[in-house]
Design a protein that fits this description.
Helices cover about 55% and strands about 25% of the residues. The protein is an alpha+beta fold. Strands 1-2 form a two-stranded antiparallel sheet. A hairpin with a 2-residue loop joins β1 and β2.
Length: about 70
């Protein structure tokens, strides 16, 4: 799968994250459902969910969200 790299600002610092388009879409849906911007959602994941790379933490966060729904 091809990854899409996006730049954003986390805690005042510019960074970029590469994720597959399906994960970007999932982040978009989650952020809309929670009335929060994607940057702020990723910032929360970075601060609360991160044990390894940020991209991995985002993927695990999305999987946990999906598993809670089922």
């Amino acid at each position: 799968m091809n990854q899409i790299k996006k730049s954003l600002i986390l805690s005042g610092h510019k960074t970029s994250i590469a994720l597959e388009k399906e994960f970007w879409k999932a982040l978009e849906i989650i952020s809309e459902n929670n009335n929060i911007g994607i940057d702020k959602l990723i910032e929360k994941i970075d601060k609360k969910e991160r044990n390894g790379s940020l991209a991995s933490a985002i993927r695990v966060f999305i999987l946990k969200k999906i598993m809670k729904l089922n």
